[in-house]
Amino acid sequence: MSIETQQKALNLEQILWEETIPGGNHWSGLIRRGTSLRFTDLTGGANLSALFYNTEDKLERYNMPDTLKGQHTAFLTTGNVCYSDMGRVMCSIIGDSLGWHDTICGVTDAAQIEAKYGKANFQTHRNDMYRSGKDGLLIELAKYGLSKRDLVANVNFFSKVTPDESGNLSFVTGHSKAGSYVDVRFDMNVLLVLSTTPHPLDPATTYKPGAVKISAWHAGLATADDACRNACGQNSRAFINTERYYL
Amino acid sequence: MMQNLVESQLTPENAVLDQVCNSGDPWMAEIKKGQIFRILDLEGNQAVDTLFYSAANPEERYSAVDTIARQAKLYLTTGSVLYSSEGNAMLTIIADTCGRHDTLGGACAAESNTVRYALDKRPMHSCRDTFMHALNTCECATHRNMSKRDITANINFFMNVPVTADGVLSFADGISGAGKYVEMRAEMDVVVLISNCPQLNNPCNAYNPTPVRLLVWN
Ligand SMILES: [Zn+2]
Q: Which Pfam families does this entry report, sorted A to Z (chain B) (predicted)?
């Protein structure tokens, strides 16, 4: 599918704003409850690392283990929600053209980027310098008074990693094509922190991270018949916890 | 999995520390670089929720995602290196008579119990409450200003959390048994924080949390 085809699925008149994060860059913003973001992989092979914090209490944050064990899954796709460490739903995946997003592999640091791709610093490469996911996330966290202690396991949208029987992991190359998208509805007021740097297990030897477009619209709150709410009993209870928080 | 089973030559008589941590209790200690640390499952199928911190700077801490990605492996056993959030080796597993330990499942918490089991399960004992209690009371933590911010994805020693190739994650029956142990060498001075899991909702420990024994050798 081309990018145009997929964007027709979004009601263009309802789009509040759009922004493109270049490959290798980082971004953050406060996303209000009831807002949805479509993340689109513009070039194919993008990796979008994401962290979520409750804007009113930044000690409450995305919890990868609770998200996985609550939904008996080792990856994220449509119908899955992202749990906070306080038993609430921070956001929900309400649309997905890919079917698999990694959340167990974290991000690269500067030493790993240099070991894998070589060195390209600002002095020689200006804004084409090689950046690491960890540095980008920490820069954005610092804008809200957060630091290394707040950096936890993140989601890696557009990346797929599968295990064999012994637990050896394989990165699936070519998983995300240009135009692939994932739609995330925010169920809490969330500080969203993003990085578009390569996935730690991407075997590519050239540094060529893909750009990701964000399109925002009002999706409203999860209704009684919401597919994410009703995906399992755990999700239903986590939504109850979220709704009680905002009463 | 059986090829990972490696027994230790160390004997408890020579240990410099030998303590029991009862189910539902926390345990904290400092382990110096080069020391050997053993966790022994006394009665079997117990989950030992464990976090490690650099003793010099607890902002550097065990990182489940670094440990998984840097070795491209999901489970922990003999030969596994436990990596820190700074990409440094914290400990290396050098003996293991169980064969597989989980680092995806995290710790039970009062709040996550309401999600996983039922809304009225909040008052029950939980590992994250135990972690928090330890950080506020154990001498190893109180002078380090540690808090909820420092609680991240932990190791569940002796827990079996298999993931299939198509990404289904389950909590399987334990593969541990009475007397099984895991032993690791500290590669830096570390603080270890344990919650000996009090989970009463999960069949994988037969609804019966049990004590563990902790030993350290020079
Ligand atoms: Zn527990």
A: DUF1989
